[in-house]
Amino acid sequence: MGRKTPLHDLHVAQGARMVDFGGWDMPVNYGSQIEEHHHVRRDAGMFDVSHMCVVDLRGAATRAFLSRLVANDVGKLRTAGKALYSCMLNATGGVIDDLIIYFLTESHFRIVVNAGTRDNDLAWMRRCATDWGFDVEIIERADLAMIAVQGPKARAAVASLLTPADGERALLLEPFFGIECGAWFVARTGYTGEDGAELLVPVNHTVAIWDLLIAQGAQPAGLGARDTLRLEAGMNLYGQDMNDQTNPLDVGLSWTIDRSGDRNFIGKSALERKPQKFIFLGLILQDKGVLRAHQIVKSSKGEGEITSGTFSPSLQKSIALAKLPLATEIGETVKVVIRDKELNAVVVKPPFVRHGKALV
Fold first, then answer.
1. Which residues are CB-contacts of 259 (< 8 A; sequence separation ≥ 6)?
2. 262-321 pLDDT tens trace
3. Can you give the C-alpha Rg of the chain in angstroms?
């Protein structure tokens, strides 16, 4: 039995099928995974993401510390509530984690890290702060839980739970911004390719909020739908598409790495010595079968490998993200080795689906 979120017993009572995920006992689906997927695309779905770890960094040296700790440039964060997606790299340029950083005040930043990496991330941050001599307080916010509400009707459902003034502020939020609404933190972020909000709320509020969101028409969804949604949206999954041995340039994460100027973040020199070997693109299977991680992709340019694959409920086709030879072109037909057979797939540029619309 793994760790439990504050909503664990409610998931069980609502008939969820529970599985281990990153050491946590999490719902994979409540009924039809396909229907959960479609409800997010068409209406509003909600996910318990309380297994994610919220970390508050405090102190006058926080910005300088983060400038060295992460690959993207926190110098971009100047407006209260602004968020930044970044990789945190090790000395060899491998991806320790991918995370979101929120700027709250000059002495207070908030980071959300992945469930399976939380212990290593916290240890890494604290060790770096000590080794570099930064006086930064690193606080794991175990008192906060997270609920992600996603879909075209998601933000309206969230706003209805807030005071009129806070509800209006939440509806005016720009993408990748967050605001404090009393004890809640409401961010216009997500992991599905749809609009929506992620709520960071006190642990003792979560069950009541979950029930109120259901009353507003939001449908619970599990890890199964979350994975098909994020893959359709072309979003990487830590531990699947990258890990601490992965060159982020090979998995489409160059946009999260700012190597301009003389900022010396950890892993920068290693990346400058590492040539990019692959281009990260999408595949759509043309023959009958299902694309899965670790399947070999053959082309006239050489071999590549699928990192994530699934059946797309929106496209009704099997899709994948893959590391392919650098010379691979959009529209090219390649062969995917599935059970000793070579099946045809066409190369596309992700995302496959955004805001309910097919893009490929």
1. 268, 271, 272
2. 999 999 999 999 999 999 999 999 999 999 999 999 999 999 999 999 999 999 999 999
3. 20
Give the type of residue at 175. Answer: P
Report how far Cα 198 is from the mean position of its chain's Cα atoms: 12
Pairing verdict, β 341-348 and 178-181 = unpaired
The answer for residues whose C-beta is within 8 angstroms of residue 255's C-beta and 6 or more apart is: none
pLDDT of amino acid 22: 87
**Residue 48 reports pLDDT greater than 90:** yes
Residues in the chain: 360
Phi-psi category of 219—alpha, beta or left, where left has phi over 0 and alpha has psi -120 to 50?
beta
Residues 323, 62: Cα–Cα separation, whole Å: 35
- Nearest C-alpha neighbor of 149 from the set 170, 128, 180: 170
Structure tokens at 51: 């297994």
- pLDDT of 1 above 70: no
Residue-averaged pLDDT of the chain: 97
| Amino acid symbol at 59 | G
Q: What is the pLDDT of residue 77?
A: 98
How far is the C-alpha of 194 from the C-alpha of 44, rounded, in Å? Answer: 9
Closest CA relative to residue 253, chosen from 267, 235, 266, 265? 235
User: What integer pLDDT is reported at residue 93 of this predicted model?
Assistant: 98
Residue 25's pLDDT band, with cuts at 50, 70 and 90, is very high
Check: pTM over 0.90? Answer yes or no.
yes
Q: Look at the block and give the residue holding tokens 């990748």.
A: 176
3-state secondary structure the chain: CCECCCCHHHHHHCCCEEEEECCEEEEEECCCHHHHHHHHHHCCEEEECCCCEEEEEECCCHHHHHHHHCCCCHHHCCCCCEEEEEEEECCCCCEEEEEEEEEEECCEEEEEECCCCHHHHHHHHHHHHHHHCCCCEEEECCCEEEEEEECCCHHHHHHCCCCHHHHHHHHCCCCCEEEEECCEEEECCCCCCCCEEEEEEEHHHHHHHHHHHHHCCCEECCHHHHHHHHHHCCCCCECCCECCCCCHHHHCCHHHCCCCCCCCCCCHHHHHHCCCCEEEEEEEECCCCCCCCCCEEEECCEEEEEEEEEEECCCCEEEEEEEEECCCCCCCEEEEEECCEEEEEEEECCCCEECCEECC
